[in-house]
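Quick illustration, no need to memorize.
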Amino acid sequence: MFVVSDASEGLRAFAATVVHEVRTPLSSLRLCIEGLICAEGLSRRDRRRVELALGQIDHLEYLTDQMRFLSAPCAPAPDPTDINDVVRGVAREMEEMASGRGVRVCARCAGGLPRAEAGRGPMRCILVNLCRNGIQAMDRAGVLRVWTRRAPPDGVEVVVQDTGCGIPASAIDRVWDPFFTTRPDGMGMGLAVVKAVAESQGGRVRLESEPGRGTTATVWFRVY
């Protein structure tokens, strides 16, 4: 069963408003809760509750970041970025989420790659979204593979591949649409953000998927 919704400019404007109205109180909540976790005399049980609250704030900040990227994609990067450095960092970040689902993360970086004409922040946003999507598509014993490679004559690529459920052929053309999702618990922002951010950096992204075998996303960036 698919959950389908259409995006419009009105929804983009709504997303921008939500980001503006939510980020400030979230920042205040984070400061207050981080102050609590440093308080003396906090029991182990209460400390765990505070840590859980911080985790929920992390999740809300992630969602508002998604909406921010969707409503206003990033400006082109003024400086080149080491794609391998970003891949290694994101792979480390994803390991905790992956291990909680019994998924392994395998990263392989090609040597001697030139820097890419894309910002570190936008590149990280793209990789985090693709990795999260891949991990969420897999059950235990799944493998998320991330690797980089040269794409002659003037590009570099990062590939994110999962061994998950795959995407039905009937849905593959719509996965880039904002707020379209094939998961009942999904929000349909991840791949829309990936496409918008990649294109804002002069890059492009393509997706290949086979139901029951997994999905491969390839992101191309021009070299500096």
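The beta strands are 104-108, 143-151, 155-161, 204-210, 214-222.
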